[in-house]
Design a protein that fits this description.
mainly alpha, elongated
Protein backbone atom coordinates (compact mmCIF):
# COMPACT_ATOMS: atom_id res chain seq x y z
CA UNK A 1 0.00 0.00 0.00
CA UNK A 2 2.81 2.42 0.82
CA UNK A 3 4.41 1.78 -2.60
CA UNK A 4 1.05 2.47 -4.35
CA UNK A 5 0.56 5.73 -2.41
CA UNK A 6 4.10 6.91 -3.32
CA UNK A 7 3.46 6.08 -6.97
CA UNK A 8 0.19 8.04 -6.98
CA UNK A 9 1.92 11.05 -5.40
CA UNK A 10 4.62 10.98 -8.11
CA UNK A 11 2.04 10.79 -10.92
CA UNK A 12 0.03 13.60 -9.33
CA UNK A 13 2.92 16.04 -9.58
CA UNK A 14 4.28 15.93 -5.98
CA UNK A 15 1.91 17.32 -3.41
CA UNK A 16 3.85 19.54 -1.03
CA UNK A 17 6.80 21.08 -2.82
CA UNK A 18 7.17 23.76 -5.49
CA UNK A 19 8.36 21.19 -8.03
CA UNK A 20 4.80 20.91 -9.38
CA UNK A 21 5.12 24.13 -11.42
CA UNK A 22 8.36 23.00 -12.96
CA UNK A 23 6.85 19.64 -13.83
CA UNK A 24 4.06 21.36 -15.79
CA UNK A 25 6.48 23.43 -17.94
CA UNK A 26 8.17 21.99 -20.99
CA UNK A 27 11.80 22.61 -21.94
CA UNK A 28 10.82 25.86 -23.72
CA UNK A 29 9.06 27.14 -20.57
CA UNK A 30 5.59 27.02 -22.10
CA UNK A 31 2.92 26.82 -19.42
CA UNK A 32 0.88 23.63 -19.88
CA UNK A 33 -0.81 23.78 -16.49
CA UNK A 34 -4.45 23.69 -15.53
CA UNK A 35 -4.77 27.46 -15.92
CA UNK A 36 -5.81 27.06 -19.57
CA UNK A 37 -2.42 27.62 -21.21
CA UNK A 38 -2.64 24.42 -23.25
CA UNK A 39 -6.11 25.26 -24.47
CA UNK A 40 -5.00 28.77 -25.45
CA UNK A 41 -2.05 27.29 -27.29
CA UNK A 42 -4.32 25.02 -29.32
CA UNK A 43 -6.75 27.85 -30.09
CA UNK A 44 -3.96 30.13 -31.23
CA UNK A 45 -2.61 27.41 -33.51
CA UNK A 46 -6.06 26.79 -35.02
CA UNK A 47 -6.57 30.52 -35.60
CA UNK A 48 -3.20 30.85 -37.25
CA UNK A 49 -3.28 27.76 -39.43
CA UNK A 50 -6.91 26.61 -39.59
CA UNK A 51 -7.70 22.91 -40.05
CA UNK A 52 -5.00 20.62 -41.37
CA UNK A 53 -4.02 21.55 -44.90
CA UNK A 54 -6.11 24.74 -44.97
CA UNK A 55 -4.87 28.25 -45.88
CA UNK A 56 -4.02 30.68 -43.06
CA UNK A 57 -6.72 33.00 -41.83
CA UNK A 58 -6.11 36.66 -42.79
CA UNK A 59 -4.63 38.64 -39.88
CA UNK A 60 -4.12 35.57 -37.71
CA UNK A 61 -0.32 35.67 -37.82
CA UNK A 62 -0.24 39.21 -36.41
CA UNK A 63 -2.67 38.28 -33.64
CA UNK A 64 -0.67 35.21 -32.72
CA UNK A 65 2.51 37.30 -32.59
CA UNK A 66 0.90 39.71 -30.13
CA UNK A 67 -0.24 36.72 -28.11
CA UNK A 68 3.39 35.81 -27.36
CA UNK A 69 3.48 38.56 -24.70
CA UNK A 70 1.79 36.31 -22.17
CA UNK A 71 -0.82 33.56 -21.81
CA UNK A 72 -3.70 35.73 -20.64
CA UNK A 73 -2.83 38.75 -22.78
CA UNK A 74 -2.17 36.51 -25.77
CA UNK A 75 -5.63 34.95 -25.69
CA UNK A 76 -7.22 38.38 -25.40
CA UNK A 77 -5.19 39.78 -28.29
CA UNK A 78 -6.11 36.88 -30.56
CA UNK A 79 -9.79 37.15 -29.64
CA UNK A 80 -9.80 40.89 -30.25
CA UNK A 81 -7.93 40.71 -33.55
CA UNK A 82 -9.97 37.90 -35.11
CA UNK A 83 -13.27 38.98 -33.48
CA UNK A 84 -14.23 35.52 -32.31
CA UNK A 85 -17.99 35.27 -32.11
CA UNK A 86 -20.28 32.30 -31.73
CA UNK A 87 -20.31 31.36 -35.41
CA UNK A 88 -16.54 31.65 -35.81
CA UNK A 89 -15.94 29.56 -32.69
CA UNK A 90 -18.32 26.92 -33.99
CA UNK A 91 -16.50 26.85 -37.32
CA UNK A 92 -13.13 26.41 -35.63
CA UNK A 93 -14.25 23.65 -33.30
CA UNK A 94 -16.79 21.79 -35.47
CA UNK A 95 -16.60 20.30 -38.94
CA UNK A 96 -18.82 21.09 -41.90
CA UNK A 97 -20.37 17.79 -42.87
CA UNK A 98 -21.17 16.87 -46.45
CA UNK A 99 -24.84 17.35 -45.56
CA UNK A 100 -24.07 20.88 -44.32
CA UNK A 101 -22.21 21.58 -47.54
CA UNK A 102 -25.06 20.35 -49.75
CA UNK A 103 -27.88 22.00 -47.80
CA UNK A 104 -26.28 25.31 -46.75
CA UNK A 105 -23.04 26.19 -48.50
CA UNK A 106 -23.41 25.01 -52.09
CA UNK A 107 -26.90 26.54 -52.55
CA UNK A 108 -25.41 29.96 -51.78
CA UNK A 109 -22.63 29.41 -54.31
CA UNK A 110 -25.06 28.01 -56.88
CA UNK A 111 -27.29 31.08 -56.69
CA UNK A 112 -24.36 33.50 -56.99
CA UNK A 113 -22.91 31.65 -60.01
CA UNK A 114 -26.33 31.76 -61.70
CA UNK A 115 -26.46 35.54 -61.37
CA UNK A 116 -22.91 36.02 -62.58
CA UNK A 117 -23.40 33.81 -65.65
CA UNK A 118 -26.59 35.58 -66.75
CA UNK A 119 -25.80 39.20 -65.96
CA UNK A 120 -25.58 41.77 -68.73
CA UNK A 121 -22.65 44.20 -68.91
CA UNK A 122 -23.17 46.98 -66.39
CA UNK A 123 -25.81 45.13 -64.38
CA UNK A 124 -25.77 45.38 -60.59
CA UNK A 125 -25.61 41.93 -58.99
CA UNK A 126 -27.23 41.86 -55.50
CA UNK A 127 -24.85 39.34 -53.97
CA UNK A 128 -22.34 39.62 -51.16
CA UNK A 129 -18.93 38.86 -52.63
CA UNK A 130 -17.49 38.75 -49.10
CA UNK A 131 -20.06 36.15 -48.06
CA UNK A 132 -19.40 33.96 -51.12
CA UNK A 133 -15.64 34.30 -50.69
CA UNK A 134 -15.96 33.25 -47.04
CA UNK A 135 -18.22 30.35 -48.01
CA UNK A 136 -15.62 29.00 -50.45
CA UNK A 137 -12.85 29.45 -47.88
CA UNK A 138 -14.70 27.46 -45.21
CA UNK A 139 -15.46 24.63 -47.62
CA UNK A 140 -11.79 24.44 -48.62
CA UNK A 141 -10.75 24.37 -44.97
CA UNK A 142 -13.18 21.54 -44.28
CA UNK A 143 -11.88 19.39 -47.15
CA UNK A 144 -14.81 19.85 -49.53
CA UNK A 145 -12.72 21.19 -52.42
CA UNK A 146 -13.15 18.13 -54.61
CA UNK A 147 -16.94 18.14 -54.27
CA UNK A 148 -17.10 21.91 -54.77
CA UNK A 149 -14.97 21.75 -57.92
CA UNK A 150 -17.14 18.96 -59.32
CA UNK A 151 -20.32 20.93 -58.58
CA UNK A 152 -18.88 24.08 -60.18
CA UNK A 153 -17.89 22.29 -63.39
CA UNK A 154 -21.27 20.57 -63.63
CA UNK A 155 -23.08 23.84 -62.99
CA UNK A 156 -21.25 25.77 -65.70
CA UNK A 157 -21.40 22.87 -68.17
CA UNK A 158 -25.19 22.76 -67.87
CA UNK A 159 -25.35 26.53 -68.43
CA UNK A 160 -23.18 26.35 -71.55
CA UNK A 161 -25.23 23.51 -73.02
CA UNK A 162 -28.33 25.72 -72.72
CA UNK A 163 -26.46 28.57 -74.38
CA UNK A 164 -25.46 26.29 -77.24
CA UNK A 165 -29.05 25.16 -77.82
CA UNK A 166 -30.24 28.77 -77.89
CA UNK A 167 -27.62 29.60 -80.52
CA UNK A 168 -28.69 26.66 -82.64
CA UNK A 169 -32.21 28.06 -82.73
CA UNK A 170 -31.02 31.53 -83.79
CA UNK A 171 -31.81 32.74 -87.37
CA UNK A 172 -28.77 33.47 -89.58
CA UNK A 173 -29.22 37.25 -89.41
CA UNK A 174 -28.97 37.16 -85.59
CA UNK A 175 -26.49 34.31 -85.25
CA UNK A 176 -23.27 36.35 -85.22
CA UNK A 177 -24.55 38.95 -82.78
CA UNK A 178 -25.92 36.35 -80.37
CA UNK A 179 -22.68 34.39 -80.44
CA UNK A 180 -20.83 37.61 -79.64
CA UNK A 181 -23.16 38.28 -76.69
CA UNK A 182 -22.75 34.73 -75.35
CA UNK A 183 -18.96 34.90 -75.63
CA UNK A 184 -18.70 38.33 -74.02
CA UNK A 185 -21.13 37.47 -71.24
CA UNK A 186 -19.27 34.29 -70.32
CA UNK A 187 -15.81 35.87 -70.37
CA UNK A 188 -17.14 38.71 -68.25
CA UNK A 189 -18.59 36.25 -65.72
CA UNK A 190 -15.21 34.52 -65.39
CA UNK A 191 -13.70 37.79 -64.18
CA UNK A 192 -15.84 37.42 -61.04
CA UNK A 193 -16.14 33.65 -60.70
CA UNK A 194 -12.41 32.88 -60.80
CA UNK A 195 -11.46 35.33 -57.97
CA UNK A 196 -14.32 34.06 -55.79
CA UNK A 197 -12.90 30.53 -55.99
CA UNK A 198 -9.28 31.59 -55.56
CA UNK A 199 -8.77 29.42 -52.44
CA UNK A 200 -10.08 26.33 -54.19
CA UNK A 201 -7.86 27.10 -57.17
CA UNK A 202 -4.75 27.57 -55.04
CA UNK A 203 -5.16 24.72 -52.58
CA UNK A 204 -6.84 22.10 -54.77
CA UNK A 205 -6.78 22.70 -58.53
CA UNK A 206 -3.19 23.97 -58.75
CA UNK A 207 -1.68 21.69 -56.11
CA UNK A 208 -3.58 18.44 -56.67
CA UNK A 209 -4.76 18.66 -60.28
CA UNK A 210 -1.84 20.71 -61.62
CA UNK A 211 -4.24 22.90 -63.58
CA UNK A 212 -5.74 26.39 -63.38
CA UNK A 213 -9.41 27.22 -62.82
CA UNK A 214 -9.59 29.92 -65.49
CA UNK A 215 -8.07 27.62 -68.11
CA UNK A 216 -10.54 24.88 -67.17
CA UNK A 217 -13.53 27.21 -67.48
CA UNK A 218 -12.39 28.63 -70.83
CA UNK A 219 -11.97 25.07 -72.08
CA UNK A 220 -15.59 24.38 -71.12
CA UNK A 221 -16.81 27.17 -73.42
CA UNK A 222 -14.59 25.88 -76.22
CA UNK A 223 -15.94 22.33 -75.94
CA UNK A 224 -19.62 23.01 -75.29
CA UNK A 225 -20.22 26.12 -77.41
CA UNK A 226 -17.45 27.19 -79.80
CA UNK A 227 -16.59 23.77 -81.22
CA UNK A 228 -20.26 23.05 -81.90
CA UNK A 229 -20.79 26.33 -83.77
CA UNK A 230 -17.49 27.13 -85.47
CA UNK A 231 -18.48 25.54 -88.81
CA UNK A 232 -21.74 27.49 -88.92
CA UNK A 233 -20.18 30.68 -87.61
CA UNK A 234 -17.15 30.95 -89.89
CA UNK A 235 -19.06 31.13 -93.24
CA UNK A 236 -21.28 33.84 -91.79
CA UNK A 237 -18.24 35.80 -90.65
CA UNK A 238 -16.66 35.56 -94.10
CA UNK A 239 -19.91 36.69 -95.70
CA UNK A 240 -20.19 39.59 -93.27
CA UNK A 241 -16.61 40.55 -94.04
CA UNK A 242 -17.40 40.89 -97.75
CA UNK A 243 -20.54 42.95 -97.01
CA UNK A 244 -19.57 46.27 -95.38
CA UNK A 245 -21.55 47.27 -92.27
CA UNK A 246 -23.49 44.00 -92.08
CA UNK A 247 -22.12 43.75 -88.53
CA UNK A 248 -20.18 46.33 -86.54
CA UNK A 249 -16.37 46.23 -86.66
CA UNK A 250 -16.26 45.84 -82.88
CA UNK A 251 -18.43 42.71 -83.04
CA UNK A 252 -16.23 41.20 -85.74
CA UNK A 253 -13.08 42.03 -83.76
CA UNK A 254 -14.48 40.58 -80.51
CA UNK A 255 -15.47 37.30 -82.14
CA UNK A 256 -12.27 36.81 -84.14
CA UNK A 257 -10.03 37.62 -81.16
CA UNK A 258 -12.18 35.42 -78.93
CA UNK A 259 -11.96 32.45 -81.31
CA UNK A 260 -8.20 32.88 -81.52
CA UNK A 261 -7.99 32.83 -77.70
CA UNK A 262 -10.10 29.68 -77.50
CA UNK A 263 -8.33 27.74 -80.23
CA UNK A 264 -5.41 29.40 -82.11
CA UNK A 265 -5.38 26.69 -84.81
CA UNK A 266 -8.77 27.94 -86.05
CA UNK A 267 -6.74 30.61 -87.86
CA UNK A 268 -6.21 28.06 -90.65
CA UNK A 269 -9.92 28.16 -91.45
CA UNK A 270 -9.75 31.83 -92.57
CA UNK A 271 -6.20 33.25 -92.40
CA UNK A 272 -7.10 36.50 -94.20
CA UNK A 273 -9.95 37.20 -91.78
CA UNK A 274 -7.87 36.54 -88.66
CA UNK A 275 -4.96 38.58 -90.05
CA UNK A 276 -7.11 41.73 -89.94
CA UNK A 277 -7.35 41.51 -86.15
CA UNK A 278 -4.44 39.34 -85.00
CA UNK A 279 -0.92 40.60 -85.84
CA UNK A 280 1.69 38.40 -87.50
CA UNK A 281 -0.78 35.72 -88.55
CA UNK A 282 0.29 35.62 -92.19
CA UNK A 283 3.89 35.04 -93.33
CA UNK A 284 5.92 38.17 -94.22
CA UNK A 285 5.32 39.72 -97.63
CA UNK A 286 7.97 39.19 -100.29
CA UNK A 287 8.82 41.47 -103.20
CA UNK A 288 8.03 38.86 -105.85
CA UNK A 289 4.35 38.82 -104.76
CA UNK A 290 3.71 42.58 -104.84
CA UNK A 291 1.75 42.33 -108.11
CA UNK A 292 -0.51 39.74 -106.55
CA UNK A 293 -1.12 41.97 -103.53
CA UNK A 294 -1.99 44.88 -105.83
CA UNK A 295 -4.45 42.67 -107.72
CA UNK A 296 -6.10 41.74 -104.43
CA UNK A 297 -6.44 45.42 -103.58
CA UNK A 298 -8.08 46.18 -106.91
CA UNK A 299 -10.53 43.33 -106.36
CA UNK A 300 -11.37 44.70 -102.93
CA UNK A 301 -11.98 48.16 -104.39
CA UNK A 302 -14.34 46.74 -107.04
CA UNK A 303 -16.28 44.89 -104.36
CA UNK A 304 -16.58 48.07 -102.30
CA UNK A 305 -17.93 49.99 -105.30
CA UNK A 306 -20.44 47.24 -106.02
CA UNK A 307 -21.72 47.65 -102.47
CA UNK A 308 -22.39 51.38 -102.63
CA UNK A 309 -18.99 53.11 -102.74
CA UNK A 310 -19.48 55.18 -105.97
CA UNK A 311 -16.56 56.59 -107.93
CA UNK A 312 -18.23 60.01 -107.81
CA UNK A 313 -16.45 60.66 -104.51
CA UNK A 314 -13.16 61.99 -105.82
CA UNK A 315 -11.41 61.81 -102.47
CA UNK A 316 -12.11 58.09 -102.24
CA UNK A 317 -11.05 57.65 -105.85
CA UNK A 318 -7.75 59.42 -105.29
CA UNK A 319 -7.16 57.45 -102.13
CA UNK A 320 -7.82 54.22 -104.05
CA UNK A 321 -5.47 55.21 -106.86
CA UNK A 322 -2.75 56.08 -104.37
CA UNK A 323 -3.24 52.78 -102.58
CA UNK A 324 -2.93 50.85 -105.87
CA UNK A 325 0.05 52.90 -107.02
CA UNK A 326 2.01 52.28 -103.84
CA UNK A 327 1.13 48.58 -103.82
CA UNK A 328 0.47 48.75 -100.06
CA UNK A 329 -2.54 46.52 -99.79
CA UNK A 330 -4.47 45.51 -96.72
CA UNK A 331 -3.17 41.99 -97.20
CA UNK A 332 0.42 43.13 -97.67
CA UNK A 333 0.16 45.39 -94.68
CA UNK A 334 -0.96 42.53 -92.48
CA UNK A 335 1.90 40.39 -93.68
CA UNK A 336 4.59 43.02 -93.35
CA UNK A 337 6.95 43.82 -96.24
CA UNK A 338 10.48 42.58 -96.37
Amino acid sequence: MEEEEESMEEEGGGGGGGGGDAAMDDQNHNNWGSGGGYERHLLGDRLLHGPAGSPPLPGAAEAAHRGAAGPAAGAGAIAAAININASTSKFLMNVITIEDYKSTYWPKLDSAIDQLLTQSPGDYIPISYEQIYSCVYKCVCQQHSEQMYSDLIKKITNHLERVSKELQASPPDLYIERFNVALGQYMGALQSIVPLFIYMNKFYIETKLNRDLKDDLIKLFTEHVAEKHIYNLMPLLLEAQSTPFQITPSTMANIVKGLYTLRPEWVQMAPALFSKFIPNILPPAVESELQEYAAQDQKLQRELMQNGFARGDQSRKRAGEELTYNGSSTCAGSRGYR
